[in-house]
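[agent] plan:
  1. take the single chain provided in the ticket
  2. run structure prediction with default settings
  3. attach structure tokens to the ticket
  4. add a short note for the reviewer (M.T.)
[agent] executing step 1
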Amino acid sequence: MNTNSQTPIVIYQEADQQVEVRLDVEQDTVWLTQRQMSELFGKDVRTVNEHLLNVYSEDELERDSTIRKFRIVRQEGARKVTRSIEHYNLDVIISVGYRVKSPQGTRFRQWATRVLREHLTQGWTLNRQRFEENARELEAAMALVRKTAGSPALDAASGRGFVDIVTRYAQTFLLLQRYDEGLLTEPRAEAGGRLPTLEEARAALASLKAELIAKGEATDLFARERGDGLEALLGNLDQTIFGEPAYPSVEAKAAHLLYFVVKNHPFADGNKRSAAYLFVDFLYRNERLLDAHGAVVVNDVGLAALTLLIAESDPANKETMVRLIMNMLAIPEARVSGESV
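[agent] step 2 finished; step 3 output follows
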């Protein structure tokens, strides 16, 4: 089998000898090449190869279940080349060790068994901790939905929006089933995302304001800035920390933009509607308003419900709300890696 999987590499050290070992916790084994076995046992590659031929010709082990190809980068002259190299699992390594009558084989087996046991135990503990943490966060998110559902500001249309949010959220949880990553951890995201300039944001809101006033659905107070609230908010979203973006992905910028405009009240009136409009405008500018099938990522009713959910939420639940929005915007893994969807 040929694989690109990034199996962890650990270092086996015996006296002055060091060997890189591929660790495979899922199959409870480790993998070495012929050259690595020759280094481990202090024998040349030809001797190791002869023992390998005997292991398989005598039907001591099966080739298919004990050999795996990994793509590794090797330095060949002045260039680096990727090659598919055969690796042999712990059963084969032990068999060769017995045949060369090398005490290193016993010490290596003891070391490998201990390392595998440690990784299995630690991995289970970490997965359990992540699952429990995300289960608590999921419960907090659902508690916010239940609380907001009882709000007098919730009409029938917004109620339908909540059903849409909860349904999509539950589907995400059921589909991912990632105990090691967890539902509410930040999803794989699309790096970058261009925020609107202050002038662009003002122009977008002015267009919305004119349209609403013409319909009799807003007054001159709508989207009127309070001090430098909007400018500070956009500057905060565009800041860097030690040279790295504080909000490095499209999802992170979009979620925080929606949250901050709703919660920080940078306008005299219409903060929720302004937040929703700037959120949609940002997604549109970054070609993320529609999904791969041409449907809007969050429809207008669902977006209205989402802004209400943010407005009703306790500031202590900010991270929960942000991660909820990011998961709703999460894109397929293939697109993140640059492949066609």
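[agent] step 4 note for reviewer: The first strand starts at residue 2 and ends at 3.
[agent] ticket updated
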